[in-house]
From TrEMBL:
It comes from Hibiscus sabdariffa. Residues 31-145 form the NERD domain. PANTHER family: SI:ZFOS-911D5.4. PROSITE patterns: NERD. This is NERD domain-containing protein. Pfam families: NERD.
Length: 319
């Protein structure tokens, strides 16, 4: 009997692995994404303003795209923030790269230089969309939010916020960044500040971003939604979900005739941003079997993953 139980368990694990991918790998992926959203939420609480997560900005110089974890915008100032969810002992090499020994040794390119490059690419992108950015408006920071972070290195660059510093940050008066940046608009005309602030938020809210999936066990994943898979009638019902029209899906589990189904609340939004005005939105509902799958490719991963729609809390699609 025990042999049958063990063989059955092994078969189940192998089936799950080939059907849905390795849970260990998924946990590793989501831990990095969860760290980004955790930092973003805390920044918003500390300083107010607006937080943009998971930007995927075109770089005109290289013809590629630059991933930006977080952009935090408050009145008069903004910061590009890279989140390094490092666990283990970290040292800084002569060339600025970091070496992390967390059970296995991993070398990282200079995070500070990368954050600086991200800020430069973002500034160029904003100016390409017709808005001039004041000199020194964007600062850049590297935040390390992992409590398992350790270091032999006594002094990191000023742009680095280590875990000990991160947990000690307190809100500053009027939402200022505790010296993170100089405040490019300080002393400027109020009308100019408000106009630029409005234009900047519009550009960032309509900038290319990764799709975002929130699972029901409080895990986040950034990446690209590919398609739905399931029974033909469910796929037909889901045809109304088009990236050009749908910005967000909220999923609820319901029971119909004793069978598990999921109800999708679909947010339809006008995505023609050329007018620069607010888009009209409306909610529609679609009900499909809970076994229907979402095919999703996480950011920086070559592996495509499957998620039952009943395990998903919400799905946000980029334009």
């Amino acid at each position: 009997m025990w042999v049958e139980v063990i063989c059955g368990f092994i078969f189940y694990r192998l089936f799950r692995r080939f059907s849905y991918g390795s849970h260990d790998a998924l946990d590793l992926e989501t831990s990095g994404f969860n760290a980004i959203f955790s930092v973003a939420n805390r920044l918003e609480k500390l300083y107010g303003g607006k937080v943009y997560v998971g930007l995927h900005i075109p770089d005109a110089d290289t013809g590629s795209r630059q991933n930006i974890d977080i952009v935090l915008v408050t009145k008069g100032e903004a910061a590009v923030i890279s989140v390094e969810n490092l666990a283990g002992f970290v040292s800084v090499n002569e060339d600025g790269s970091w070496t992390c020994d967390g059970g296995r040794t991993v070398c990282h390119h200079d995070p500070v230089s990368e954050a600086k490059e991200q800020a430069s690419v973002l500034e160029s992108y904003i100016e390409q969309r017709g808005v001039s950015v004041p000199e020194g408006y964007f600062s850049y920071k590297v935040v390390i939010p992992n409590p398992k972070f350790r270091t032999y290195y006594k002094k990191f660059p000023s742009e680095v916020i280590t875990y000990d510093q991160w947990v000690q940050i307190k809100p500053e008066p009027k939402g200022m960044f505790s010296g993170w940046i100089k405040g490019a608009f300080r002393g400027g005309k109020k009308e100019m500040q408000e106009s630029f602030h409005q234009q900047l938020n519009f550009i960032l809210s309509t900038a290319p971003m990764w799709d975002r999936m929130e699972l029901k066990d409080n895990k986040y994943i950034l990446g690209e939604f590919l398609e739905f898979k399931g029974k033909q009638e469910d796929i037909l019902a889901l045809r109304i979900i088009k990236r050009s029209k749908v910005s967000r899906l909220i999923i609820q589990k319901i029971s119909m005739f004793g069978l598990a189904h999921s109800k999708l609340q679909v947010l339809y939004s006008c995505r023609d941003y050329r007018s620069g005005g607010a888009s009209a939105s409306e909610w529609k509902e679609v009900t499909v079997r809970s076994s229907t799958e979402v095919i999703f490719q996480p950011q920086n991963s070559t592996e495509v993953r499957k998620f039952k729609i009943s395990s998903i809390k919400s799905l946000s699609l980029s334009a």
